């Protein structure tokens, strides 16, 4: 970027530069128009403009001469003189630049009426003679003293060309005037292309701060690392010039920094634009203040963002920040078209005078400046004296701070003095100001970190209760003492991290629900709106009917209803439901219609298209012809079903996005042979293996049959996986796509290519082979060699494709092959059969059995581990997605031995998980959240799943019931209720065996229980009961009496009846 900024085309050739002639013509007209209309006001009455640029430099600097070149030509041309006369433009430059500027000569006369005259200077020529000639053209026979030449007096001469020109111009006798105000005037108003460049630069700033800097700071603070401000500056600068590190897709060659990122903490603060990051370590202890400021450029247009982060803030810091935040928002709101620039400063002062007058002495002198090609546009300073009118197209860097405040009751030099700074890039639109960096939150709750509360909670946390000597708490002894101190510490760390994840997840969910972002799972979005439905084009098309009876027009998909003596048509899509009922000798038809606001479709814009319209909600008819009534109802329902099915199929086909055309590689492409594809092509005949080739913009898989070919575009790949054969029979490449494609006649988002690494071998000999049989050993060695060879071929293919994806045109896709981590895998039932599920860097996958399982971790809202408890051999995993309209995904029958490993993996991936002792019905839960998100947030979000909270409530209620001993009848009734429920969707023989094994040898003997039962029967007069009834009652009593005391504290395992 530095080379392009300074016009250095070394090594790249002239073809690298292309001047947009239309943009040049449009902006040169703006320059001459401003010069003509505001000649005395902004241009000092200049009769000619002489602008000269210095030699190239690697330093970051903002010169109006360079800005003018960028604004007009798209690039800076170092050591170039441009002289603007009323009818001519003279350009003195090197031979190379002259060649590039020749195209301006051809188009300028036709588009602008100006002659562009280029003077090429040889390398060994100082150019003084040509300069004298240009000065003569300025005079044009007039006395120099009578003419005024505008120049940039504040730019010091650098290099031989600039020094010679400055010397000759000063000695020429012309009146010289500074035209910087004129330059600021033409730069102030940005066109759409310029605003778009500023927006991209602002997006880059905010993304680097949000996605890179803040997470890095949190890790440093959480792990108590030592890092200097300068090191943070270097790392952040690398993230700005390589946007992929901030998880955004911008071309690196178009971006650059505005200034080295600034990090300040530890009591040493400087809020001036010239501030730099020092070598001091980042200070993040209690009362710590961290200031981060990042400026980025996109196509030479600047944007800026700054945030302040507080660590365990005291009341003074908290109040100061809240007042500063309110004032900053007031300043942005005041930047409305038509207001004067000083209105922003006045809005700031009003807030501070009302809410924080004690902070006024520490307030910065200005509220910000204009921003664009120049980082600080001097003519648009937001101070108390600027009366410039704010116009649409202006862009401001709203920068507000408090300098050298004093913390309350702090003697630490690193926290006694502190400063606060906020900055945003604001674009002025017709509707008002719009912050382009608002994606990076500056709300107090998002920038204030509190670690003191966590430490206090840790200290106040009660110690584990020891089991009593009477054995009442014996069932808990094993759970409490099963781990050593190290493992308990690890579990505690995990719990703390999960608690923090719960807070973050609830805040994230609250923001998403408040913004209406519940995903795009509403399939009704493709339905027609009622405003677009047309039953008949005109009245003449309505079928004529002699009788006023309900009719169904199958051809036009409409129903005709008699209303006040007229047949009124309604399109079938407007019908929500139709019912009929009989009462006496009459039958009634009730038709309910879809109306706006009745949950018909989120895409129904009828109320917006026809705001004054009145809609029919329902209509009822009475008929004495029962047969006709039933026939009409049946026809309407059939027609609704047919139209709904057709629209559904159309919507399904609409999801097939048209792919770009595959560009075949000119050279021999990277390829893998003898591959099989899943899903298969289908059809009759023998199945054939094929070849996978990597071309310019996608893969192509083809077999010997001409019609068996699949193209997969790189841009359509969401995830790519490479799974070598270890304990499996196949080595595979798997692609999970953004959009559906057709493989044969199947629509799919998952395409897999694989090779079987082991061949099926049939032993012809009937006898058992010896372990040391040479043939057996040789076959095993051949199988190992074959597997290693196939894995190596796949690995080489993956490496070459990865190199292809590293090319600049594919870097924005962020593609790479994920390799599953087998050591983190676990068995489970995601569909109907048990499978081995393994995590990758970005996903949770099962790629062996069909249907495939690919879950993107970023799509996961929370995970609920169900049927987790003592004595369970298996549990279930329920994955809730961020799109609440999407069904949850269940993975059943996961062995309990995998529980700790799964928890540790989810914790490391920042996935919030909960545990419950029974399966939940998730559809009504998600529907309740969608119906009333505010209530969900008020009730604590996902904390209703927190088992620890529910356990504490249960224990409190159980303490009051300790003296209660149920009778045999109560036990029997409880057991019967438990028999009626099934705790798990998945039943297994292991669970039954476990129940039998878990019965403990406690309680009364069979004889004692039988005697009690007989005595109870006599008391209740139940001697007439049958022997079977008594046997059933006896079994229930025995089963209940064997239960340990822990049954009142842990949910019972319900028996499985087969």
From TrEMBL:
SMART domains: FACT-Spt16_Nlob (SM01285), Rtt106 (SM01287), SPT16 (SM01286). Residues 826-916 form the Histone chaperone RTT106/FACT complex subunit SPT16-like middle domain. This is FACT complex subunit. Residues 453-477, 950-1058 are annotated as: Disordered. Residues 1003-1023 have a biased composition (Basic and acidic residues). Residues 950-962, 971-1002 have a biased composition (Acidic residues). Component of the FACT complex, a general chromatin factor that acts to reorganize nucleosomes. The FACT complex is involved in multiple processes that require DNA as a template such as mRNA elongation, DNA replication and DNA repair. During transcription elongation the FACT complex acts as a histone chaperone that both destabilizes and restores nucleosomal structure. It comes from Ceratopteris richardii (Triangle waterfern). One of its GO terms (cellular component) is FACT complex. GO terms for molecular function: nucleosome binding.
